Amino acid sequence: MVSAIINLFFPKTCHACETILSDNENDFCVDCRHEFPLTKYHFERPETVKKIFFGRVELEAATALFYFHKSGRVQQMLHQLKYKGREQIGRVLGDWLGFELLESPYFDSIDVVIPVPIHSKKLKQRGYNQVAIFAQQLAKALGVIYVDDVLLKSVNTKTQVFQSREARFKSVIDSFYAKNLEKIDTKHIC
Fold first, then answer.
1. Contacts of 156 (CB under 8 A, 6+ apart)
2. Tell me: the pLDDT tens digits for 18-51?
3. Which DSSP string do the residues of the chain spell out, in sequence order?
4. Is residue 29 assigned to a domain?
5. CA nearest 184: which of 157, 156, 144, 154?
6. Statement: residue 122 has pLDDT above 70
7. Is the pTM higher than 0.90?
8. What's the confidence (pLDDT) of residue 111?
9. How far apart are the first and last CA of the chain?
10. What pLDDT, in 10s, does the model give residues 44-75?
11. What percent of the chain stands above pLDDT 90?
């Protein structure tokens, strides 16, 4: 009864398209769930994403949950997560990918999840690191440890939204450093 009254004044909305969710929907509406462009790379073609990083970083496997299309539902959802304080999206996506990776033979040896950090100035401005929220939930779904004090960001880089993939890589190449490496020695990292 109380939740019905709360929903009347503060209805739950889809994290991607912001339509009001029906009682049997959680986080995303049925339309968005069916329209999300899932890659399924972690089941079928883990080499596809791995090739993007060839020569830059050594990877055993790589994946992406969604294909990204400008002005698409995924972009709208990520904008909500990154800039509108919708932290729940990171938790939902971490669970989603985590449960899928548990079913994949390519990702069955993950020991630790490490988030990509943001600079302390951006963290103070946003109030949270959306990748850390995702990574915490991913680690929980996989049943592995989460470590956030190994990879650190030393340079506050400008927004990369309008840069090409190559330009983004070049702008961040020297902005990270590692410490506490003993925490991840001999571990498979996600």
1. 119, 120, 121, 122
2. 888 888 888 899 998 889 999 999 988 778 888 8
3. -HHHHHHHHS--B-TTT-PBPPTT--SS-HHHHHHS-B--HHHH-THHHHGGGTTTS--S----SB---TTSHHHHHHHHHHHS--THHHHHHHHHHHHHHHT-GGGTT--EE-PPP--HHHHHHHSS-HHHHHHHHHHHHHT-EE--SSEEE-S-PPP-TTS-HHHHHHHHTTSEEE--GGGTTT--B-
4. yes
5. 144
6. yes
7. no
8. 94
9. 43
10. 877 888 888 777 778 888 899 999 888 888 99
11. 37
Q: Is the residue at 8 inside a domain?
A: no
Query: Which range marks the domain in which residue 63 is found?
Result: 13-183
Total structural domains within the chain: 1
Strand partners, 178: 151
For residue 118, count other CB atoms closer than 10 A to its CB: 19
